[in-house]
Amino acid sequence: MTTLLWSTGTPRRTAVTVLIAWLLAGTLDITTAVLFYVGPSSARAARLLQGIASGLLGARAFDGGATTALLGLALHYLIALIWTLVFLVAFRTLGALRRHLVLIGIAYGIIVWLVMNLVVLPLSNVARGPLQPRAAAIAATILVLCIGLPISLVIGRHLRGESAS
Q: Domain residues of the chain, as ranges?
């Protein structure tokens, strides 16, 4: 696994690339979620972040105030880091990912949505209602634009010249 993360190029260049892709994607995603789902209300933004923390803590996350909102923010960025590292490993393993970064980013955003909604969230403590197609399409679009494309474009453009492992 270590060789897939740091194999070719310098470890520093890879680390900086991962840092940029991670922080860009994580920040775009949480900012878009706050603006789209809750608007300018800081109280409702805290509730959204507590909703993320509820994946770990269940309903008691909503009674935790700023502490569980910060936990939700930390979990959000941890998840964004994991998705960034997964893409890096795939990018280094599958040479075909290097050719069409935009299409790969779109596909990756859809994959992230599928895995989060069909695997991660059902295994978490998040309370969920039935699937609503319009809401699902909006959420998938946000993940394509804020996670899939930024990660693909940043990692792809910075590390494209490396040889596939």
A: 10-159
Which whole-number Å values give the CA distances from 81 to 9, 22, 44, 77, in the listed order? 20, 5, 25, 6
Two tokens, residue 122: 């059902």
pTM of the model: 0.88
pLDDT tens profile 99-109: 899 999 999 99
DSSP string, the chain: -HHHHHSSS-HHHHHHHHHHHHHHHHHHHHHHHIIIIITT-HHHHHHHHHHHHHHHHGGGGGGSHHHHHHHHHHHHHHHHHHHHHHHHHHHHH-GGGGT-HHHHHHHHHHHHHHHIIIIIHHHSS-------HHHHHHHHHHHIIIIIHHHHHHHHHHHTTSPP-
